[in-house]
């Protein structure tokens, strides 16, 4: 079996330190990805004003896949190698299908501020998933910080939910797991093919499922055309689902998962700002305080 095979590759996402100019570009690209992702929940909330949850999920994925497929055809990109298909399937199930579906279902009853704090654990979950995937053994301090961050979010979730976890919380925690797996595999694949092709092929792989599902959802779920609904749909399809992931995977490939995860620390706080500005949501001091607590925990894991 070849040493570069995904079945035998036990190395970290980024082993050697990137050159200064590559690090600067990679950091800028990853930061653009974080900015795009921070708008995902408010845009989803806007989209739900005009579309049902299944319509929003399937149409956004199908629309993003059509754009990605057009780009792949226009640039005459060769199909991915067979050894990459397993990793692309993980990206597709986690990032293209799993995370959008679970978070959209959660946002039917959860506020974007609440969801942002819970999903603030994503960099931490990704770091843990990466450690398990690569076979590395992080330090005890890493695991203590990881557990502390999880406890902080779990406590916030239980308190905000009135003493018990809700169905929306279950969707959000499941979304964390599937997205972390997709990020980990996407970061690994982005070392071997351009980042935009990783998400592009993952979207195209899902098109035979998402396109008929979108047609079915549109025929069964009522919808109404509104400015917020269309703007939300276009953003989650093109900004979050495609362009955001293009720059995120390229940046992650350039600077590595740990460095990219540090930039993602700002995402929950940015989403809190957007939820207040775009949706007029009001939240207690517990939300930003918990987000900062998680930020500190993730910073400790990155330095462990």
Automatic annotation (TrEMBL):
Q: What does the UniProt entry say about where the protein is found?
A: Membrane
Question: What Pfam families is this protein classified in?
Answer: EamA (PF00892)
Keywords attached to this Swiss-Prot or TrEMBL record, sorted alphabetically, are: Membrane, Transmembrane, Transmembrane helix
* Cellular component, GO, one term: membrane
- InterPro entries named among the record's database cross-references: AA-Vitamin_Transporters (IPR050638), EamA_dom (IPR000620), EmrE-like (IPR037185)
TM region positions: 28-48, 54-75, 87-107, 113-132, 144-164, 198-220, 226-248, 283-301
Q: Which domain of life is it from?
A: Bacteria
Q: Does the keyword Ribosomal protein apply?
A: no
- Residue ranges occupied by any EamA domain in the UniProt entry: 25-155, 171-300
**Family in the record:** Belongs to the EamA transporter family.
> What is the protein named?
DMT family transporter
Query: Organism source for this protein?
Result: Streptomyces griseofuscus
